[in-house]
Amino acid sequence: MAWAPWRDNGTRISANGTRVVFAESSPFRIREVPNDGFIRIRIICNREMILVTSPQALSEILVTKGYEFEKPQYLRDTLGPVIGHGLVLAEGDAHKVQRRKFMPAFGFRHIKELYPLFWRKSREVVRAMTAECDANGVLNAEAGAWASRCTLDVIGTAGVGRDFGAINDEHNQLVNEYMKLTQPSRTDRKIMILAEIVGHFLPIEPFMNLPMPRVREIRHSVDIVRNVCKDVISSKKKKLEQGKLEDVDIVSIAIRSGVFSDSELVDHMMTFLGAGHETTGSALTWAIYALARFPDTQNRLRDEIRANLPSVDEETEITSPDIDKLPYLNAVCSEVLRIYPSVPQTVRQAARDTVIDGRLIPKGTRLVLAAWGTNVDPTLWGPDAAEFKPERWLSVNDGGSHSVKEASTGGASSNYAFLTFLHGPRSCIGQAFSKSEFACLLAAWVGRFHFVLQDERLQDEANMLFEQLVTCKPTDGLHVRATVVPGY
């Protein structure tokens, strides 16, 4: 591939796992390396990958030729046990069939009907957090743990039809097992690196069964999660036999379709439980981090929330317009998703010889689609691309400087400047669900509490260490001081 600009980084592995198998973050690469849409990089074992940077190339890979690029087998084999071999890891015709079957659970009207449930769960978690405060109304908390507990209950209730009771039970078994599975560690990074090396030459399934402590822990947690899924599925099948299964949730739709075996149903439920609560939980965690770093933004957001939404102490329900009409809340959510994508990058492998943006891409070529880089590329977002600036999503009608059309894209020059949910047939099926849930949860949290970082050094983002397994998270969690703000 002599046509691609070259950046030699040897085989050094980053201290920040989310900056993948190459040593520096993709944002720096995109800015520092002159390129015309592709950057050729070296990875483990001196092999090559292509970092894709141009909107035209991204549009072809994600939309026009979306099914000509697949997740590498090593990635499917390592993530499969954690999130299930469901829609996220399906390829080709299997993916097309599954996505079509599940679309009713993520339809526009159905998501709008879920806002009251999202708000009830938001109230519940804020009340639980308030109950844990000391006499001065202060809670020293790990934000990520609370975020995981509430998002697991939301996806459980709205997505699979069961309330797991995680919000009010910090020792909830399902929560604890998911924390073991998804809290990234340096050991997980080493396993992923070894899996990629082994997977390049041999099937990695035997490797994933080696008697290593971390592998045993993962298998034990997976068994527990699968048993929970089996129990939910069994219960719903009994309702189907009795003619009482009318729910419009993911599992009910899958059961009624009649096209999935029991094992496949378990995989699908694991996918939506794991990926569904992890992505929103990660977004909520990073939102609290950003707002703690920028207290003026946090205060402005709180003012908007308190002026327009009922207190979480009230039993008042809200509907979708109550949330959707809040410009600054939605701007903050969009900016968090831009700067801190839950999945900073995805890897694709060419399933056949193909051509992208006029360049030959041989079968087997691996490409990196780096939301972490593209989402802050100054050639797409302007010179302030790397700044946390919710105002970029505001139109002149809402106190911003953009037209309504420009504000809808944050002022970016291309739709493909925002890769958090990807695009095309492989885009995130649950993005509307996740964004709506995220907005409700963030509104409730910020409406009640003021958040400050316990470790002041983390005000400098350079000091924040983070890792990626399923999603990107702070390595040691996000420890904050949440103080009840009176008057709401």
From TrEMBL:
The protein's matches in Pfam families, at most eight in alphabetical order, are given as: p450 (PF00067)
Q: Return the Gene3D superfamilies for the record.
A: Cytochrome P450
Q: What are the names of the required cofactors? A: heme
Positions bound to heme: 428
- In Gene Ontology terms, what is one molecular function of this protein? monooxygenase activity
Record-linked InterPro entries: Cyt_P450, Cyt_P450_E_grp-I, Cyt_P450_sf, Cytochrome_P450_monoxygenase
Key words of the record: Heme, Iron, Metal-binding
Which protein family is it in? Belongs to the cytochrome P450 family.
- According to UniProt, the name of this protein is Cytochrome P450 78A3
Species this chain originates from: Moelleriella libera RCEF 2490
Lineage of the organism: Eukaryota, Fungi, Dikarya, Ascomycota, Pezizomycotina
